[in-house]
Each structure stands twice: as structure tokens, then as C-alpha cells.
Amino acid sequence: MRYAIEVDHVTRVFGGKGDKVHAKALDDISLQVDEGELFGLLGPNGAGKTTLIKILATLLLPSEGSVRVLGHDVVKEYNKIRARINMVSGGEISGYGLLTVRENLWMFSQFYGIPPKVARQRMDDLLERFGLLDKADAKVRTISTGQKQKMNVIRGFVTDPDLIYLDEPTLGLDVNASLAIRSFLRKWVKDTPGKTMLLTTHYMVEADELCDRVAIIDQGRILACDSPSNLKRMLKRATTFDIETTAFPGLDSMPSMDGLQGYNSKSVGDRALTRFVVNDEAVISEIISHISSKGGRIIALGKSEATLEDVFIHLVGRGLE
Amino acid sequence: MRDALRRDLRTIRWSAWLGWQMESNWTNPLLFLVYSIVKPVFGTFILVFMFVIILGDVATDPVLFSYMYVGNAFYMFVAQVMFGVAYVVQEDRERFKTLKQVYIAPISFFLYVVGRALSKMAVTALAVVITLVFGVMALDVAVDLGQTAWLMFGIGLFIGLACICTIGVALAGVTFLTARHSSGINEGIAGLFYLFCGVVYPITVLPQWAQNIGLAIPITYWLELMRRSLVPSMDFSEMSGLGEYSDLSILLFLTLSSMAFLILSIGIFKYADHLARKKGKLDMNSTY
Ligand SMILES: Nc1ncnc2c1ncn2[C@@H]1O[C@H](COP(=O)(O)OP(=O)(O)O)[C@@H](O)[C@H]1O
Ligand SMILES: [Mg+2]
User: Fold this and answer.
1) Measured on CA atoms in the order A235, A236, A242, A248, is the torsion positive or negative?
2) Per-residue pLDDT at B141
3) How far does the centroid of ligand 2 lie from the alpha carbon of residue A107, in Å?
4) Which of B22, B106, B283 sits opposite A82 (nearest CB)?
5) pLDDT, tens digit (0-9, with 9 covering 90-100), for A251-303
6) Residue A299 is part of a domain; what is its CATH number?
7) Cβ pair A111:B14 closer than 8 A
8) Pick from B14, B103, B104: which is nearest to A110 by CB?
9) Is residue A311, in this structure, part of any structural domain at all?
10) Which structural domain range is residue A256 located in?
11) Cα A164 off chain centre by
């Protein structure tokens, strides 16, 4: 089996020692992605996902370590890599507003040397699959954010890359646009077995649903890397409880307790929904008495299926968002 | 080899096309004309007025006036391309957010910028021609196309424009590393060329060291060649400081200095490109 991506002890630092900014965005990361795999990077904001993608896309050099993409070194042999990869970044509206959707896509397809007939065929096909055919001749500045992002995804796929990077492709999109993009990605991977996709996200459902394997990344380090089901199996000894309470002070700072792995709270109006990952169910009574000692009242309590987010809570002690 | 050439030509073709779409993107063609032509022509008027105020009349010193007028007209290429090309990088990076996408495409980014520069040159060429025609008709600038050595003119024009283009691309590379308002490098360089290259006054008015700088820059020879070919009836040799050299020698100096600048420009671009990847500047946002 050949690797599409081999990352070997990579560190990336921003800013020199004397500089105002000095951040270690990646800290001694190693990972391999197989050809044909749909690989996910799951981690909170600032984890280092985009930094890693930029290195893989030949936009940024690693400070230390080596990276091979499709068998070539990203520092020295970027010219052999570029024709075979592409990248789509979410959360950032891009495109030449005064060109039409079709013109934008066409120009990029020509930069990749796609024969005109093939390019036209692919463009029409992809525009249709994303329901964008009726906007094909509209100026990009006149279409909606969701439509721009769909165009961007099409731009990534119109060059038929062997390896594609998708950096939070559904960030900030409405449910329908996200669903359309996700279902396209799922189908693409199924229909083109030799092609590799690297997807970053901080939506755990996305990682869970789409990815063959997921690396959980936080503060520039990989904490775990496996298939979603294996990751969840890590939690075999752990159990997940959802406790709904009235809001009370100190919700975000539970004292450490034996058997409590981690928790994540979200407030919903005047209530709070907290997810606890515990590896000893006995700790629940301690949690409940802590809540009532702080003036909180329990409204509902339930045991639930483990998700990837629970794996994250288990590993890091806090939630993804 | 042939594939590489075809790819490079394709790159230039489509980036020039993109540039042209941007340059000519005026819902109103009249506005387009005003912006790209009337503006530079008015810039020329300022110069004419200054000449008239100082020397009283255009006819007082027709040789100096033609010298200045033609030099100023061709200098528009330098100014427009240098400002324009840096703007290409900034706009792609911060307004359209396409810099990363173009950068990772399997093309030479250098040639992508060349293509964008070509579209600016096309618009500028229109302004230059209009400025010259106006000069001939209204101000007695002694352009005499009947006497023009067209081959010399054509080759000289091509080399000069190619040289301006590569200097522009080098500055585009530098723009990778600089934020929107903090640089001024391009304006600075364009200003230096204005100062040292005998644009509106002959370099002989400069001190010797400054003349030496002028003699190392291809623009100096380019402007001299443009004047000699378009205004063959006037003798600039008294004032230009280049009178002792034949047309062919000037062309040779232009070619040699342009080649040196080409090599320098490619070096600067490559180094800036490497630094941008190293420092992570390719999707930098200028803070205002
Ligand atoms: N160009 C840069 N200069 C300085 N710091 C940066 C730069 N890019 C990223 N960082 C820092 O590196 C860390 C990781 O960022 P990033 O890779 O964007 O995370 P993610 O994509 O997972 O949200 C953050 O702390 C961020 O502030
Ligand atoms: Mg990111």
C-alpha cells in the first residue's frame, strides 16, 4: 500500500524568538494517509489543522520534519505535486466577483491544463450535481455565500485531483448547503476508489459520518488516530451521561473527581446541558450533589451513545466548541 | 519541453484574459476611457504647464520639450505596470482570496503576474498613443513617423516593455511579504527610475554619481531609443549624455542591462517566494 501523505515529525513555529507572535502551531506531528482513504482531522479552533493543510498543499514550509505528498517532498518537489492536488478552504469567500461562475471555474481548469472539452463536460456535470446550473452565467458577486462555497468545492474537483484537501468545507453554511456538500463528498469517495481526501473539521458529525480514519488534534499534537468506531471503542470502559439542569454558577468549573474523565456544557436559554464522560458510574452521585450544592436543579438525566466528541472530551477533558 | 511551453503560454493567455476582464470591467465604457486614458493624459498636462510657466512657451526650447514629452509618455508604462502589478498580488490575496488557489496551481506564478501585467500594458499603450498624438497635433512635438527606424523601434519597445514587466514581477514577489499600506516600495522604485533615468530632464543635469546610476538602468537607454526613433529630426545628443553612442550601441546597452535586470528580477522573485512560504505570508491580511 502506498501512502498518499506521509508526515514525519513535523513542527511548525510562527514568528522568531524575538517576535511579538510566537506560536507552535504544530508540535512534532507524524501521520500517514493511505491512497484512497478519506482521512479526517478533527480538532477545535487553533488546533493546527489549517497549518497542516497549508504545508501539505505546498503553501507553507514545515519548520522541522519532513513531508511527502504522493511520494514527493513538499519542500523540494512541489512542482511534481501541484498538478495532482487541489484545495478548498471553507469559511473564506473566494473568487473573482466580476467573472461569472463558469468563467471562474474555466480559468482554473485552464491553469491545470484540462483539455477544453473535458473541462466543459466536468463543469456542467458538477454544476448540475450542486444545483448551480442556473447560476452558471451569473457574476460571482451576485450569488449567495452557500452558492459561492459550492462553486469553490467545484473548483477543487473540476481538476480531478488525486488528492484533495478540504479545510472545514461546510463552515458557516446553512444546513442545506452543508448537506449537499457532504453527500457529494461521500459519493465522490465511493465512486473514485483510488483518490484520497483529507478533510478538516470541528464538526464531529462530519468526521464520524464521512471519514475512514480520524486524527484527533489539539494544540498542535495528535492525541489519537483511528477509525471512528475504534476511537469510540476506546470509551468502552467510559460511559456518557447527559444532564440537563437549571443554570447555576460554576457550571464550567467542576472540581476534579475520581472517575470523571471530562465534560462539556452548553447553555440553552436558562438551562444548561452538560455531557459527562465518566469511567466509573459511581461518580454520578458526586456530580449530582455538587450541582445541588451550587444551587442547580436537575431537570433530566440520561445515558447516551458515545460519539467522537466524547472521545475528544475523554482525551482532552473539555469539549470541541 | 513543448508541453512546458504550451503550459506557460496558456498561463499567460488566461491570466492576461483575467486582467483584461478586470481592467475593462466598467459598466460604462465612457468611464473606462476616462479612467484609463484621460487620467494619464492630464498628468502630462501638468508637466506641459510647468514647462510653459518656467520657460514661457513650448517653442522656447523645442528639443527639450520633445525630449520631456516623449520621455514622460513612455514612462507611463513604468508607473502603471509597477503600481498595477503589486496591486494584483494584494487584491488576489485580500479582496478575492484567490492567491492561495492560483499559487498552488501547476503554473508559474511569475508568468501569471506577467499575464496580468500585459493587460495593464495594453490599457496603458492606448494612453501613451493618445498622449503622443495629442502632443503632435496640439503641441508641435516633432514625432515624424515617416523617418522612424521601425525595426529598431519595434525591437527596442519590446525589450523595454519586457524589462518593465520583469521588474514589476519582482516587485510583485516583494508584495508577497508586505502588507497593503506599509510598503511603498513600488512607488519608491518607480520614483527612483523617474529621478535617474532621464525621463523629463536629461541625466546630464545630475551629478556624476547619479548619472552612473542612470546608466546602469535599462529604462535610460529605452527612453533614449524611443526618442531617437520617434523624433528623428531632433538632435538630443547635446543634452542626453548618450550622444556619442550610435543607435545600435544604445540597443545593445538596453539589451545587456535588461538581461541583468531580468536575472536580478527572477532572483528577487524566487527568494521572496521562498520567504513567503517559509514565513507563511501567502494568505496574510493587511490590517488597516
Ligand atoms: N500566519 C500565522 N502567524 C502566526 N500564528 C499563526 C499563523 N497561522 C496560524 N497561527 C497560529 O497557529 C495556531 C494554529 O492555527 P490553525 O492551523 O489555523 O488552527 P485550526 O485550523 O485548527 O483552527 C493558532 O494558534 C494560530 O493562531
Ligand atoms: Mg482552520
Assistant:
1) negative
2) 78
3) 26
4) B106
5) 777 888 888 888 888 888 888 888 888 877 888 888 888 888 888 888 888 88
6) 3.30.70.100
7) yes
8) B14
9) no
10) 239-305
11) 13
